[in-house]
Amino acid sequence: MSVCAIGQGGMLAPIVNPINPTSPSPPPGRYLPLPIIRKIGLVQPLHWLVRGAQDLLRGGWLSLLHGVVLAAFGGLLGLLAYDRFWLLAGAFSGFLVVAPLLATSLYAISRALERGEPVNRELVGKTWTRWQDSRYRVRGGYWSLVRFGLLLALAGTGWVLTSAALITLLTPQPINTPLDFLHHVVLESHHYLFELWLALGGLMAAPVFASSVITMPLLLDRRIDVLQAVLSSWQAVLMNPAPLAFWAALIMCLTLLSLGTLLISLIVVLPLLGHASWHAYRDLVDASALPERLPPEEVI
Predict the structure, then answer these.
(1) Contacts of 67 (CB under 8 A, 6+ apart)
(2) Which of 16, 156, 168, 196 is the most buried (most CB within 10 A)?
(3) Which of 102, 97, 213 minimizes the C-alpha distance to 162?
(4) Other C-beta atoms within 10 Å of 41: how many?
(5) What is the mean pLDDT of residues 72-84?
(6) 0.90 exceeded by pTM
(7) How open is the CA angle 136-140-144, to the nearest 5 degrees?
């Protein structure tokens, strides 16, 4: 017989014994426990940025390297698709969808700094490769990060294709350059294409943001299934709609700043947001009841 309790947020969850790395999977039909979600203040996202900046300084060149790589990739994308701005607009906005995946090793750096552990190239390398060492051995193993990353990549690809189709099919003139996009999409007042483009982007971005705001840090930190992590992320958004809407607005503004500086400021903005997202997870989620994710060499 299972025993249930009402946790924070009013969710009914079973009380189970602490899970260890060798615990068998729960029997089919039983609900897995969700972590406790905390209420936060409206301006708490500003504190995340401050703590993210502190981690950026402490992480040094390893943190900045993430921004350099992504800025270089964005620059290459811009060069390849500059005369196909209908594609470039979707690709850059799709970057926001997969950004939580790209920042995975930044979460690992912040976690290591929090624990007083060494921050080096080995830490970053293991973060991106350790999933394959425990793919089949443990329920909720590192393969969960890959599965969620694939879902984000699929969502980002879907938006790129939708954006490209919308712009190319509904504009009266070819969209080949940023000026074409400005004149025939943004400033065109007859067909409301820009408003439709923004509305569709918002309809896709809102559920993706709600599904991913704390999911990747939670998957990295605790041994938990993708479904548990996504439900926890949604619960965090539903319990803190105003602060997390403010957080989403800050992310959007900093991303637009990066685009406005021809991706130069992305070198700092990406690691800043990645580290800050770790602190968002730590403030929003009490995951102490869930088993800690162990490195592959400690998994039996």
Answers:
(1) 266, 267, 268, 269, 270, 271
(2) 156
(3) 97
(4) 12
(5) 76
(6) no
(7) 85
